[in-house]
Amino acid sequence: MGTENKLTEIIRGAVHKDRFWIRLAVVVLAVIMMGFSLSWLMLTDMGPDPYTMLNNAVSRKLGVSLGSWQAFLNCVLLVGVLIFGGRNIGFGTLANMVLVGYSIDFFSWVWRNTLPLEVFGRFPVRLAVMVPALVLFVLSAAVYMDLDMGSSPYDAIPFILSRHFKKLPFRILRILYDCGFILAALLCGGKLGAVTVLMALTLGPVIEWAGKVIHKVFEKNN
Asked: What is the largest CA-CA distance in the chain?
């Protein structure tokens, strides 16, 4: 009952935000762009973010699509987040839970059926694709988080953990958290890429910085 009341309260609060429908549309677009950029990163075989690395490894083992497995795991994590008092849950949370994984599935299917995939065996091509894809992912994630429509269950858990490990700086805790998912992915047969390591070590601070820059740009324009 407590979890149901908490979810109802979250939904009511989210709907009453200023410019709700515009913010929701931008969040959905940003989340789809995250999936779009991750599909390119996976195409380069240089690794996605730690969470996608784990989900890709498990989905392959189970023989299900990445989107379906990721949506299921997100639901499990969301229940845990609600039980343990996670904050910043909203419609953006639901968009992230469903659309990132299925966007990766869709765009990966498009690339497999339209692109000469053999060219991605060349390192210069992989590097040329990886850099803009990584930049797009960071910018999309920054926009998604900065709109305050709710974070993913995966991103909410470190904030819950920080309440129990108050002496540990949040950035260090987040790095350890991401590294834990990388280890789990490796145990499930996942392949570690350079981009995954880079994301685990720098993604949180970089997205936070990009969000502040985007916020300042919008403030100046308004």
From this structure: 55
Q: Could you tell me where the DSSP H helices lie in 63-169?
A: 66-83, 91-114, 123-146, 153-164
Give the number of C-alpha atoms closer than 13 A to the C-alpha of residue 153, restricted to the C-beta side.
18
Stated pTM of the model:
0.84
Q: How far apart are CA 181 and CA 107, in angstroms?
A: 24
pLDDT per position as a tens digit, 126-177:
999 999 999 999 888 888 877 778 889 998 898 888 888 888 888 888 889 9
Break the chain into its structural domains and give their ranges: 2-221
Report the SS3 class of residue 11. helix
What is the residue-wise DSSP string for 153-191?
HHHHHHHHHHHH-TTS-HHHHHHHHHHHHHHHHHHTTPP
Give the tokens for residue 22.
């515009």
